[in-house]
Amino acid sequence: TDIVARLVAQKLTESMGRSFIIDNVTGAGGVIGDSAAARAAPDGYTLLGTSSTFAINPAVVSKLPFDPIKGFAPIALVARAPFMLVVHPSVPAKSVKELVALAKANPGKLDYASAGQGTAVHLAVELFSSMAGVKMMHIPYKGSGLALIDLLSGQVQLTFANVLSSRAHVQSGRLRALAVSSAKRSAVLPELPTVSESGIPGYDTASWYGYLAPAGTPRPIVQRLNAEIINGINSADMSKRLATDGAEPAGGTPEEFGQYLASEITRWRKVVRES
What we know:
By secondary structure, the chain is of the alpha+beta class. The chain has ten helices and eight strands. The strands form two sheets. Strands 1, 2, 5, 6, 7 and 8 form a six-stranded antiparallel β-sheet that branches. The chain has a two-stranded parallel ribbon with strand order 3-4. Strand 3, helix 5 (120-132) and strand 4 (137-140) form a beta-alpha-beta unit. Helix 1 (2-16) crosses helix 8 (219-233) and helix 3 (53-60) packs across helix 10. It is globular and about 60 Å long.
């Protein structure tokens, strides 16, 4: 989320002549930052750069301090990206099938990290565990950065990591990638199989990134920001950067993003009930 936000902020700063400052607010699976944005003045000066966890929280948090639909004005869907199933090199599994066999032989012994209870990574692994018939121990952190640090040091054994933040660690050998979480292989990692084709048919999940404003933000401001963001993500340099890091530019109108957000909230409520 931070990487995408900085790319977008740079483009907005260039095109609008105003400095866009990133304020990372972690904790509670993004709820603390989401709440701060929901309470902000609807004047276009405070925006929320968020991820798919935003659509999961209504299913796993009993009482959100804001309405995820009525509390925000959708601006734009920026990008989508699959997760990579990555393990620490000390884990003897070199494929999804080997990881599943290892987990079945050692129920509850493998620790997996996430950015927090009920986050996209948490549910991605729980869905994986449910479909594979294994049990692993969830270790929630206060943000994906802290989770990645402990994975790199071997304090935990695996996670579903974001391609943008973990690809360099895979290339350096500090992590081992086993598969991507999406239904289709990643264009930037074509050699890496999907979880679905690696022994868990039908598995499919990915992360997305978008921008919201507090509810009541004037429509002309929302439309201007949408136009500037879409121009930015469609520029050659940003499209290349996103693709290099395993993400695909999205786009669309504020209304289309609002419809997509509502459908994602419905989808994850169903997944949470079933898993």
